[in-house]
């Protein structure tokens, strides 16, 4: 029987060409001008699923962007694996920082360079090719379903309803997701925890028009100064979030578990060096890995107001805006936090401005027990390809839909990620090492093997 | 002899058409794509000066945008009036807030609506027409020089050198400037003080690339949060500026003078209502007019960083920027303040970010003694047209070049402004009432009359 290595060797170029067809579609879910691209991308996915061997594949409408769904039912009595991935990508600005066209993939230095190369076109496509190999070589011993959505980067607003409406179709024993990373190519890891997310846009209005900063400056509140002060006041001198009730539901992690976490290989010096910073930052009393793994955050993702063009325009602007997000840890409810911040930020607004807070989206956190059979099958699969048992880690990122799957479909997810810290997902020059791409295609069939073993 | 009223009545339409030709040239000095428009505007000014009757008019090169200069020498032994104005205008964004094209003047509700309608095309052009009337009717009893520059809105960087190089040509007894406002059409006023200005751009850099706010958030300083905190720290709880040494040179105004200032008609309620604010703001211990007239300020004129597009992008940005300005009061030196802020802002930068502060421009403040003969001539002129002696007021605005004139040319300036608070200069929908435009043309010849009387 042809081995996976032989199969990859023979089909390498085709695999990449197929992936590149996906990447070339600028499927930016957050920008309305790309609405039609989302459909193009969904249709492309169904073509690729059919080519890989599913029985049927269809583009499903949702209230937002479409879902590409495909399935191969070998025998209804067999176990079923549901693959979840997303076809949408993050915006690409600032464009001038990209070294190559974000939507024209280039292979250089052993990596694929493009928006979506890792997140999540590259990673989700590994599943299509692993499936193809198992099917073509007669090794597939379970049913496989693919659900590739188009709204992950905007918080999957339509997918919960889609799941509710297609519960029967989506029935499965486990959900398999490759949308996370591992510590390094030498130290494989599986994400066992994800942070939740709340995201707002705030608008601060001072005077009803932009004013001359000379004639009015000093006597009329400047909405940018005011917004800056309000933002600054949300973190105290220990970088602790001051929103009343914010930490109420945070599960404090035991000293024992923190000690275990501290054993993960980590160099603060190298971390700082790779980011070009002289010093790390964060909540007092926690290490860097704890700050991203077990603690919530308050970050301004964007800010704008007044004159931002060339040169010097003296203006006292009418409005200032910010996009604000909090990462949440297990047990924090995003809807509750969404409301807490809204109330708090409105309450600290001084009388001389008007503040509007819109809750743009949110999602819950997730924990995967390492005692799960499927988790153990994934562990063995990584061990065989990477020669080392993967470390279970709590990620700082969020995949809000993962908790929704558990709630709506009653199915746990295994986060078999193959991304690396250097992949620059969500940044200019996103990339994905070919070695990780092909190792993913090597690892996934082993998961099926161990998962379907009696 | 034909009166000014008759002359205006006969030539009204032509006056406006000529002004509109000036306004239609988008002479935005701060935007490099308008470089050629500055030359077009300067040539247009020389044409209009020649048409009004000067002996010669020329476009003079400077290190930056050109100067349009023209003169009518009746008799070298006569007094000389130097008219100063500026042909450049402020940027027009946000364009969507304009009700009409900013560079296609429209007359509606008795006002001219366009960028530059008041500041300063409308106001400076009144001088050309007043001069034309005096000359054509044989009433001109002094020499007149016009110096119309193209860099006022960016702080007149090239004009001091131009003045130095043309001291002889610019010799005059008084400089006449219409680039300020008056209290209301019922209460004329003359600006006797101007605030100085310092303007910086700051750049705060955190990590060397935009990061995923989930994977890194909480463990790496966010430059927007950091910038917000730094900005907030520059004003204390009394809205007093915390930059060490900032107030050292501020001349405190006596209780007596403050009492006199307080007699100027002013309704805080109407002020707030016209600006759409519930409450005024400012340095504790000062009234609104004191806050703009005799106290320095700290305003953020623009801020930007991270994701500012549609929807929700979760990013921990690499950089955040702000444009920052201080209005300064008499005796504060802008170069010194420029340096003080630069040093202070750099000194309060936390170790986990890099801060760069660029001093974009600055200008000194100005005071005009109300005992000056020329001031008295202006007073009488206003009194005759408006039926009331003008109130001397200290403006919050800045015309940095006015102090430079005094320093380099040794000539005082009279700020005969006819703008109104509702003219929205520097804002969308700038406008200038026709009545003020024509009253200006009525008032200026009277200034000449009283100024040249023995």
Describe the structure.
2 copies of one chain form a homodimer. Chain A has 12 helices and 18 strands. In chain A, strands 1-2-6-3-7-17 form a 6-stranded mixed sheet, sandwiched between helices. The first copy, chain A, is of the alpha+beta class and 454 residues long. Chain A has 3 domains: 4-194 and 365-452, Aminopeptidase (3-Layer(aba) Sandwich), CATH 3.40.630.10; 196-247 and 296-362, Alpha-Beta Plaits (2-Layer Sandwich), CATH 3.30.70; 251-288, no CATH class. In chain A, β4 and β5 (111-113) form a beta hairpin. Chain A is globular. The mean pLDDT of chain A is 95. Chain A has helices at 4-23, 35-52, 121-136, 159-165, 223-232, 255-261, 268-275, 288-293, 334-347, 373-386, 400-409, 434-452, and strands spanning 56-60, 67-72, 80-86, 106-108, 111-113, 143-149, 174-177, 189-194, 196-205, 211-212, 299-306, 315-316, 319-328, 354-363, 366-367, 391-394, 413-415, 431-433. β11 of chain A pairs antiparallel with β11 (299-306) of chain B.
> CATH-wise, what's the superfamily of the largest domain in chain A?
Zn peptidases
| Largest interface (CB < 8 Å) | A-B, 101 and 101 residues
Describe the main β-sheet of chain A briefly. Answer: 6 strands, mixed
Using only C-alpha atoms, the radius of gyration of chain A works out to 23 Å
Task: Estimate nothing, just give the exact number of structural domains of chain A.
Answer: 3
Shape of chain A: globular
Give the class of chain A from helix and strand content and strand pairing.
alpha+beta
Please, what is the oligomeric state?
homodimer
Question: Which parts of chain A are unreliable, with pLDDT below 50 for 5 consecutive residues or more?
Answer: none
- CATH class term of the largest domain in chain A: Alpha Beta
Series of secondary-structure elements of chain A, N-terminal to C-terminal = HHEEEEEHEHEEEEHHHHEEEHEEHEHEEH
CATH fold label of the largest domain in chain A: Aminopeptidase
Number of helices of chain A: 12
CATH architecture of the largest domain in chain A: 3-Layer(aba) Sandwich
Mean pLDDT of chain A: 95
**Helix content range of chain A:** 25-40%
End-to-end gap of chain A: 22 Å
Major sheet of chain A: order of its strands?
1-2-6-3-7-17
Number of strands of chain A: 18
Strand content of chain A: 15-25%
